[in-house]
């Protein structure tokens, strides 16, 4: 009997460089529904070229998918990137390209599929309603997710987010000030916030 994952097309990926940085936004998506399954920021280490950082991030995203959504990871991934082509059915690539070009609301319309508890789903949905250029605190995120006292759970939802940038956990900052922690490092979070503040 054929396994269901074998009947679905391979996952695809696309990337777009964040202006004035060496960082690249990367999204992995399912081509049959253009839903983002994982995303993040490729941050070069030392003198690593951007292409190597992208390759390393793709491996990390697939490892995270294998741990969290094994049926999705089992589909494997087409090694070729999808390039943006306006109006030719490349919504994920087009949205990423638009975001880095300054349309910081462009990612809001993308579908995202990631497994998680009911509270995490509520927190991730609340994150997608946080306007670019208007970060909120972890307490405000907990309240928006329907449980004002679950501040730590809101922080854990940000940490467990498999679709960073598309589900904008970078828009949550500590009440005490500063940018706070981020899976891809404080410099990446600061760069995203600055990009959004500039274009919001």
Question: Could you explain the architecture of this structure?
Answer:
With 200 residues, this protein is α/β, with parallel strands linked by helices. It folds into 2 domains: 4-111; 116-199, Winged helix-like DNA-binding domain superfamily/Winged helix DNA-binding domain (Arc Repressor Mutant, subunit A, Orthogonal Bundle), CATH 1.10.10. It has 7 helices and 7 strands. It has helices at residues 50-68, 70-73, 91-101, 118-127, 138-144, 151-160, 186-199; strands at 11-17, 24-30, 35-42, 77-81, 111-112, 136-137, 172-173. The strands form 2 sheets. The chain has a 5-stranded mixed β-sheet. The chain has a two-stranded parallel ribbon with strand order 6-7. A hairpin with a 6-residue loop joins strand 1 and strand 2. Helix 4 (118-127) crosses helix 6 (151-160). The longest helix is centred in the N-terminal third of the chain and has 19 residues, at 50-68. It is globular. The N and C termini lie far apart (51 Å).
């Amino acid at each position: 009997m054929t396994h269901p994952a074998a009947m679905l097309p391979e996952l695809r990926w696309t990337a777009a460089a964040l202006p004035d940085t060496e960082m690249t936004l990367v999204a992995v998506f399912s081509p049959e529904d253009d839903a983002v399954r994982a995303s993040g920021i490729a941050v070069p280490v030392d003198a690593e070229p951007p292409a190597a950082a992208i390759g390393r991030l793709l491996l990390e995203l697939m490892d995270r998918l294998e741990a969290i959504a094994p049926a999705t990871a089992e589909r494997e991934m087409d090694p070729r990137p999808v390039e943006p082509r306006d109006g030719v059915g490349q919504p994920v690539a087009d949205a990423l390209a638009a975001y880095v070009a300054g349309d910081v609301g462009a990612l809001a319309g993308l579908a995202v599929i990631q497994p998680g508890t009911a509270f995490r789903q509520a927190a991730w949905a609340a994150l997608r309603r946080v306007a670019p250029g208007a970060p909120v605190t972890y307490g405000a995120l907990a309240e928006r997710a329907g449980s004002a006292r679950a501040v730590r759970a809101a922080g854990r939802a940000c940490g467990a987010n498999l679709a960073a940038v598309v589900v904008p956990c970078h828009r949550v900052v500590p009440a005490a000030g500063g940018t706070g922690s981020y899976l891809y490092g404080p410099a990446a979070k600061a760069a995203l916030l600055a990009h959004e503040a500039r274009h919001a």
